[in-house]
Amino acid sequence: MHCTLIVCTFLSFCVSFSNGAACKDGDHKGENDPKSKDNDVDTATGLSVLLDRNDGKTVFDCCGFIKQWEFYAKKNTGTVHFQVWRPAGTSYSLVGENLYTVTSGNEDKEIKYSLLTANRIGIQSGDVIGIYQPGSVIVSHKQEGSSNQYRTTTSVGSLSVGSTFDWSAVTQSNNRKYAIRADVTNGNNPSITNLAATVTGTDATPIGTLLFTLTVADADTSDTLTTTMTTTTSLFNFDSTSLQVTSAQQLPSGTTTLNFQVTDACGSTGTGTLTIVVTNVPPVIHNLPYNTDVTEDQTAELQLYVINATDTSEYDTVTCSIQSVSPTTSIFFTKIASGSLYGIYIQAYPSLSYDSVNAYTLTVACTDSKDTVTGLFHVYITRNNAPVFTNLQASVNVTSKTPTSTSIYTVTSSDAEGDQLYYNMTCSSTPCPFAIYHSGEVRSTDSLESYTVAGYDLFIYVYDGTTLVGPKTLTVIVTDINSAPILTNLPLSSPVSVSENSALGVSVFQVSYSDIDTSDTHVILATFSPSSGGSIFTVDSTNGLITTSSTTNINYESLATSTVVVNVHVSDGTAFATSSLTISIMDVNEAPVFGKTLYQITGTEGNAGTAVGTPGFDVTDPDNGATQKYSIDCPEFNMDQTTAAVTLAANYDLDVTGTSSQVTCNVSVSDGELTATSALQVTINDVNDNTPSFGQPSYTFYAQPNEAVGSVIGSIVATDADVGAFGTISYTLDQVSLGNEYFGVQSNGDFYLKTGLTTFSSGQTLSLTATVTDSGGLTDTAAVTIVIPESTTAAPTTTTDRHVTFLEDPKNIAWLSAAVVILCGIVCLMVYQSFRFGDYSRLARWCQRSRSKKLQKPRNHYRRTYYQSPRVRDIPELEYPSPALESDWRPWRVRTHEL
Ligand SMILES: *[C@@H]1O[C@H](CO)[C@@H](O)[C@H](O)[C@H]1NC(C)=O
Ligand SMILES: *[C@@H]1O[C@H](CO)[C@@H](O)[C@H](O)[C@H]1NC(C)=O
Ligand SMILES: *[C@@H]1O[C@H](CO)[C@@H](O)[C@H](O)[C@H]1NC(C)=O
Ligand SMILES: *[C@@H]1O[C@H](CO)[C@@H](O)[C@H](O)[C@H]1NC(C)=O
What we know:
By secondary structure, this protein is mainly beta.
């Protein structure tokens, strides 16, 4: 039966064995007493026996060694092979054998064959005992039991250890016990014999270097030993066959402990520790000490040297720095120059002076962070003087016929140290048909004929290997090349402004130009954008003066755009220059304009506010969006400032004497700033605004029955305040009730007898109605009564008789005299008051009135209301009493009659 044994040496290291538990020293397999099985011996020669008893009595069940064979030698002499077979699949392999030779005289004896350690066969669970006797059979057996299996054959023969034989092909037999016994023992522990140990190396050790070889041993020399490294590491390799420890990679400095274990076939172990100490190899500076020179006029940062410092260990990075400088300065420093190599540098503008310090010694230190090595670096300062030009600046004349590679000038310079000097240059124009050579010679590099530039400035440098001096200018003038004119005051940074309606032909801008070729004749032309600009601006092709057009006014409102770009072109006949300026046209407020010098409207008289009419003004204003306000200067009229509608400012009555029916006024229109005027003729038509009126509601006249036909018996004159057509009145009488037309009225109002009244008796009264009508159809009526008096009585005078005149009455003379005295007193009082209180108005008014009365006929009259006979209606001017107080008078407008 197989047993699986797990041997765990360390927690983390387990090896599984199927070789069975360790054998106990003294245990055995086979017969307890081989002598008791001395019954029979086979007679064959070269017989091999396999004792694969099913009960396991001849099959090992532990792992260990056979230390002694014991058997019974029944008869015969010769060699016996005591064998151990191990199943291998269906076959068996020969694990080992001990040979014992039975010599004469030892027949019929029980023999104990004790094995030296070196000869002991290692066994495992499952191994089977076998016997091979090359000659006659010596070991006896006994026929016994019903099982006790075994196999015998002569076809195995003599085999070397490790060979195999397929015992399954040999028939298994029963009922034999062989006189043989194998005593086992547990075997010895293996050991690593040369550990613990310590090996030392460097971090420069190459990969694969053999560091140590383990030696292992086991007293059981036939034992199978397995050695492993139980430490997990990628730094070292361990070969379990050669037992060599090698470096698996570049080793970092430090100490590593490696554990090893050796295990034998039965799982017994031995351990050992190998300590590997890796030490650092310092870096190496390969290229110090070293010397270098630096010129004293060094200005740029400069790399002086690249330090070649290396370290054999790939784990180490070498850094280099300047440890100290003598004399002390901080102008030197190190930094990575390329890859991992450090350079020594001098900083920009180090202010070196040969006379102050002409050498520096730098101690450069390189370290791998464990060990530091140093080296010396010497910097020697050299004196330097800059080269000096000796014939620049300069100017040369060349012709345009100069061919390629013609030397035109040789620049010379000197250098105090006699350094090799190098020249180079830049040029004012590209392409530049000149080059300078290191000899200082300046040559044409092309035929100048194909160039149009009249002159070049060559900016020349000289370099002494240390200092670049320059530039100094060599001016090359190509004497016979036309040079283009140059516009000197264009382009402009801002537009030129021109107002609309500017005067014609006024100057806008003077184009200026220059030309090296002073004898050239120049023509100045311009194009305009938009091209319409050409109609409002012109350019004088001779003097370059840009002016407004001499014929076309600039009207801002009609422009497509308010800016005009003038592209100016100045030509000398061969070459030209162009540039442009922008003219910005400014809008100017323009006055509104009346289309006519006179407008007419017609209205009618009326009260203040009455509409007269709206003149059809045809005002235009060139400015877009301008607004107009209208006004009129006649006080009689108002004008709506927006609609221009005219209304009466005060009552307008044509019936008032002197009131004109046609007034011409000045009208104005304003855009808020500018004004235009025109005339407005206002015609006011008369209207029939007054009704004719009899002076009284009724008239009474007397007439004798024999009154002569045609005699005037009274007056019924009526008045009409309208002047003109509407003031024309006519009279009619309604005498239908009288049955005849007895009376008539003349156009002057005289009431006269038309037919004799003889048919009427005395004392009779006749009534009729008089009507007055004006031409507008307005009427008034009055009742007229005609009394026919008793024939015996004298007819009374008619009431149409007038009173005596004012001055005819002696009573009035006295009254008037008194009134004149009072009036003079009042006048004196008014004059006094006016001077005292500064109020001249009353006086002025009064004086005005007084003067008017004297100098002209008044338009408005003030007449005292006093009794008046119905017959008396007209009062002569001279009859007016002087007014005492103005308030005593009320206005009464009346038509005056010429005296
Ligand atoms: C540095 O010095 C070593 C030894 O002289 C040489 O082999 C190596 O090529 C050098 N490295 C450089 C970059 O010069
Ligand atoms: C070059 O030509 C100009 C004009 O002809 C003259 O004034 C000048 O002196 C010349 N320069 C040289 C270096 O010949
Ligand atoms: C002229 O040479 C100097 C020194 O070699 C160089 O630094 C400089 O850039 C060069 N200038 C031109 C214009 O080639
Ligand atoms: C109208 O204006 C003209 C010119 O200013 C002036 O002579 C005239 O008297 C004015 N007419 C009236 C009615 O104001």
